[in-house]
TrEMBL record:
Native species: Tessaracoccus aquimaris
PANTHER family reported for this sequence: PROTEIN YJDN, PROTEIN YJDN-RELATED
One Pfam family in the UniProt entry: Glyoxalase
Region (Disordered): 43-65
Protein name in the entry: VOC family protein
Domain of life: Bacteria
Domain Glyoxalase/fosfomycin resistance/dioxygenase: start-end pairs: 10-125
Amino acid sequence: MTAPQPYVTFPGNAREALTFYASVFGGRAEMYTLAEFNRTDGPPEAIAHGEVDGPVRIGGSDAAPGQPGVSMHGLMLALLGTAEPEVLHRWFDALADGGTVVDPLGPKPWGASDGQVIDRFGLHWLIGYEGQQ
């Protein structure tokens, strides 16, 4: 099944962000600099393209000079039922480290468990599963 993959323009911290997401979700972060792509439209060490290839895939790059970085309003990245509850709790806690918990991950009145967190890089996550644990 094909699913959308977030591709984020980071404000100069793509290396740090993609490394963080690889540590949270597992997998490997692969990154290429502007210099490696023979580009001269920014600092040579800036990330021209990167990707985390794990159970949760995220791509991204550093913003070009004058280009804004990520800003999320009215959008959440949903990880609902995408892993076992224990894994989802681990991911939620890791994303909350240095971020902001909007709604703690826990049982809700409708019978499911979910929560929201904005991580330290500004991505808004909705994480949950059916049934309560």
